[in-house]
Amino acid sequence: MSLVTAENLQKDYPLGDTVVHAVRGVSFTIEPASFASFVGPSGSGKTTLLNMIGCLDRPTGGRLTLMGTDVATLNQRTAAAFRGEHIGFVFQDFNLIPVLTAYENIEYPLLMVQRWPADKRSARVRSLLEAVGMADQADKRPDQLSGGQKQRVAVARALVTNPKLVLADEPTANLDHETAYRIIGLMKQLRTEFKTTFIFSTHDPKIMAEAEVTYFMEDGRFLEGNETRRGGAHA
Known about the structure:
Elements: E1 4-15, E2 18-30, E3 35-39, H1 46-53, E4 61-66, E5 69-70, H2 76-86, E6 87-91, H3 102-114, H4 118-131, H5 147-159, E7 165-169, H6 177-194, E8 197-202, H7 205-210, E9 213-218, E10 221-229
Parallel strand pairs: 3-8, 3-9, 6-7, 7-8
Antiparallel strand pairs: 1-2, 1-4, 4-5, 9-10
């Protein structure tokens, strides 16, 4: 079974007396343990598409199925529960809580969303800190970390609940060239280790070069011959 399936997916937004057609009838599938990307310029619809996959926004038309669940059947409460159970998020501006340490930022979803017991929670957080190479920075707050270190913490936080899917919106936009490659390599390593699917919205050539499945977008549509697949068992 495909992890994500979209059929003629659409999203419209009212803007004054007009309607913005942000996503215009796209169809695609993404398999488990994939490293996939939606690529296009600002305003192409890629972030809107990511938000619909993340159950942060509801489609206007078409059908979107995630892990066998039709998102149209989810109301606000059940969508939040579905996100907490199955989906992690990585943002370009990190979105770490300033007053919390790296450890506490990673732990936060386990306290607020899944409410794990303390011993299980500690073991999970420390294993993720090790996995992203941040064990020695666990007690530092975000303002004491570099951009690359913040993004490592953000990746660990996205993975802490054992999600099947991680959505990353321009995750390398605020990173220098070398750090961006390290973060991409880290995410591919974690995909292999945890069998998690990563889906990006991006216009970064570095991610485009590493993605196994790429969909090119413009003006809310996929470009003709839009899909690129390359290499590996996950392509």
